[in-house]
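User: Predict structure, ligand PPS.
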Amino acid sequence: MPEHLIEPHGGTLVDLVVDEARAAEMKEASRDWPSWDLTPRQICDLEMLVNGAFSPLTGFMTQDEYDGCCKDMRLPDDTLWPMPIMLDIPSDIADTLTAGESVLALRDPEGVMLAALHVEDLWTPDREKEAEQVFGTTNPEHPGVDYLLNGMNPVYVGGRVEALQLPHHYDYVELRNTPAEVRKMFAEKGWRKVVAFQTRNPMHRAHQELTFRASKELEANLLVHPVVGMTKPGDVDHYTRVRCYQAIMKHYPHNTAALSLLPLAMRMGGPREAVWHAIIRKNHGCTHIVVGRDHAGPGKDSQGNDFYGPYDAQELLQTHEEELGIAMVPFKLMVYLNERDAYCPIDEVPEGIKPLMLSGTELRDRLARGADIPEWFSFPDVVSELRKSYPPRSKQGLTVFFTGLSGSGKSTVANVLLVKLLEMGGRPVTLLDGDIVRKNLSSELGFSKEHRDLNILRIGFVANEITKNGGIAICAPIAPYAHVRKQNRDLIGSSGGYILVHISTPLEVCEQRDRKGLYAKARSGIIKEFTGISDPYEEPDDADLKIDTADITPEEAAQQVILHLEKEGYIGV
Ligand code: PPS
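Assistant: Predicted complex:
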């Protein structure tokens, strides 16, 4: 793109924060306004609107703006804007509003009023159509489509926004800069040409090589501009990533590169999202933006097919860069050449040389095993940050969740396991036995399905906290229902290890043992809703281990669990 078309330090910036007098007036008037507590994604969108990152937008889209944006990426005045920015609300809140009259107070989750929305439009969108137009698919395996179809409220409300304040952040405050602050920083540093690097992943050597190469080729400074709002579900958390970015910044020459965090909620919209990212970076005063392979890609569908072609984003942005006044720096995948100890774009690999790469899956696997991560792939200070957040399995927290009938031997085996793990040491161990939980955490609950589910979810909540913080939780309730066991697995599995042990001792054996005399009472009807007798037990089909204690000792059963944990890497030397 010709240099003269690039506008250094961006164009006009929107600022939606009102002055003190207007703020006082709004606070007074808000007593009569209906309120809406913003969702995490809406808070991100609001922040980007208010601080001017979404310039020229001055509020949430009206239907006209939305229709044009979805259809052909244009606002009614023909301005290019590729991503719909709407406020979605439930019908009961929408029913309290009148278009052209109402003002809606927008509040954070604690109820603090951040802004007012002057309601200009209210409508129920056709979200399948929106998905097709914006994302090119209605397949909910696309995370942007999933959020749109399954995570949003049914009514959209559009109109001008007036803000009292920006959403407050307590983390990395010095790195969270508004577009105006970023432009000011560039001006103070004398940076006229700045290339932005958008990322939602930890940065390794390939990223450093790519960005350094881009800056050198353009003779431009570099803004490392990672997204810390919402990214793709399952991504590395932003605390870990920011520590990695801080580490990598030391690997650029002094005074050539800066780091700033962007509170954007990504949609993983590939090509359209690349255009959106470029507008946002232009608003931050950048003159160039790096767009690599599969920019803002949503991953593959369950058939293994990509939603977009690897270079679709580059192609779409290329057609609009002149109009936008920010130049795209297209980059191919960077690979390592061992023979030359150097990185190069994949299409420039000399014949006969086999390039080296490490996939994200391979990296995660190596972290989980505590295996070596080669220096050609990542800087040791970045790897050390990742290792702190992703310790090997033998140092991760985990939950061993026993399920089985009353009298099946759960508690006894769980107690032996507790002792064996305490003998081994290394991690704190907590036993959440069924009976004990019912005396404390769930003392007011009975045995209806509703109460049993609540009991199991409470146990899951506590076990998750223990697991998240690196401890071992041993749980031993009956947990007769598969769907809540599954909910616990999903929750805890994202914090550490989760092992489901089905103590499958047959009902006849449990009843014969009848250590507490409960089966006799259940048979004679004194105890109602008794699991296995007058209440269901759904056998797990997802158990990691199945142990029948009819013919083995509790010590032998506990050993089976320990050997399984060792096999899975949760116990190591
Ligand atoms: S559940 O279904 O998971 O919430 O049950 P749990 O919290 O593990 O509680 C089971 C223990 O409570 C005693 N008990 C009963 N069990 C099943 N059904 C009924 N109706 C019932 N009433 C009391 C029983 O002692 C269970 O302990 P365990 O250790 O399983 O024998």
